[in-house]
Structure prediction request, 225 residues.
Amino acid sequence: NAGVTQTPKFQVLKTGQSMTLQCAQDMNHEYMSWYRQDPGMGLRLIHYSVGAGITDQGEVPNGYNVSRSTTEDFPLRLLSAAPSQTSVYFCASSYTGIKGADTQYFGPGTRLTVL
Amino acid sequence: KNEVEQSPQNLTAQEGEFITINCSYSVGISALHWLQQHPGGGIVSLFMLSSGKKKHGRLIATINIQEKHSSLHITASHPRDSAVYICAVRPMEYGNKLVFGAGTILRVKS
Prediction:
């Protein structure tokens, strides 16, 4: 199993550009999520999905869109990049057990800089 | 005030020392996670707890649900334990969502 994969690893954008961060998992996990990590702050949830066709907003969704057309893929779209979106982005996945999400598996991260 | 507070923020230890990292939270939870983030950036899940204590090698995690507190202990610390340790909780009213602490930066010197 490849686990959770993310591409690209690094990206530099200019203000106003759009792009898609890719995330895929091969563990047949129902639950997938996107986080951003900023210095001195904990990981913050951007969007999440509990299964194909179902997505919902997290703590900091503004400026980002997601879709979940398959169980495996959960891309994150930046609509019009802003310097405030400079961050490290992590995708994660897990099973959804009886009590909710189980052990989280994280991708390697994407370091995004917006100039 | 953050829902999840970790202490200390930074910790430097000598190889072989016993290390404790603390996590306090303010809401009712269904589970608590301890994660490790190495300097390369990758995040690995260490433990998921809903009660009691778990042990894996030199790592021990405990949780006291009544006191809303968890600790991560590292016995016989080693320089390869140097990493950021992150506590995350699953609040009961949030369903599957996790809320993360800011992390504890641990450096173990040889």
